[in-house]
C-alpha cells in the first residue's frame, strides 16, 4: 500500500493525549491582571512596571479583554493603564490592544505587534545606552498591525515585512520597513522614516503614508496599480508638511529617537525627500480629514 508504515506493536496507534501543553503558560499575563484588576474595575487607570521575555506571547491581550469586558473597547481611553516594560517581547505584543492600555517597551518585540489593535498606544524603543543606529536596525518583526482598527504604534527602529497589512485605522511610525508595507490597507496612517522595501501599497484602497526616500529609489519600490505618490515640499502641500512635522514631534516625544530629532531639526531640508503615498481614488483635498491622520 502506498505510504504504508510498519508501526511496532508496542507503540501507540492513536493520539494518547487531548492536547499538547503550551510552552507559554501565560504566567506573566495573569500576574499583570492580578496587579491591575482593581484599577481596571474602578476605571482609575494607573502606572505599573514588568519585565518580559521572548517566551511571553500576546502580552496585553488579557488586560485588553478585562478592559473591554467592563468598559468596552474605548471606555478607559481617558484614564489608561500605563505599563513600563523591559525586555524582548514574544509574538503578538499588544494584540487586540484596547483603548485604555498604553504599553511602553524598552527592548524589542517579535512578529505581529499590534495585531488587531483597536486603540491605546504601543511604544517600543531601544534599551537605554544602546549604541546601534535605530534607522538601520530592526526593533519589531513581521506583519505588525495586521488588521488593526485604531490606536497608535511608535517603534524607534525598523519593522519587518508586511507592516500595516489590512490596517483600517491605526497610526504607526517606524524607521524603516521590509517588503509589502501597507498591503490591502484601508485606513489609518503609516509613517516610514527610512528605507521601505518592495511592493509598497499593493492593494491599498484607504489611508495614506509618508515615506522618507533618501536613496531616491522609492519610485521603483511602490506598487503602481492602486496608489500614487506626491512630494510634499511645495505650497499646495503645506498642510501635509505641517502634519508630518507634528507626527515627528509626537514620535520623538514618545521614543526619544535621535534620528527622529534630526529629521525635525533639519525638517525643511528633509521634507523634500518624503513621499506622500495615497490611493489613486482618494482626493488630496480631503485626505487628512477622511483618514483621521493625526495620531492620538
Automatic annotation (TrEMBL):
Q: Which InterPro entries match?
A: Glu_synth_asu_C (IPR002489), Glu_synth_asu_C_sf (IPR036485), Glutamate_Synthase (IPR051394)
Any one Pfam family here would be GXGXG
Q: Which domain of life is it from?
A: Eukaryota
SUPFAM superfamilies reported for this sequence: Alpha subunit of glutamate synthase, C-terminal domain
Residues covered by the Glutamate synthase alpha subunit C-terminal domain: 51-237
**Which residues lie within the region annotated Disordered?**
1-23
GO molecular function annotation: oxidoreductase activity
The name under which this protein is listed is Glutamate synthase alpha subunit C-terminal domain-containing protein
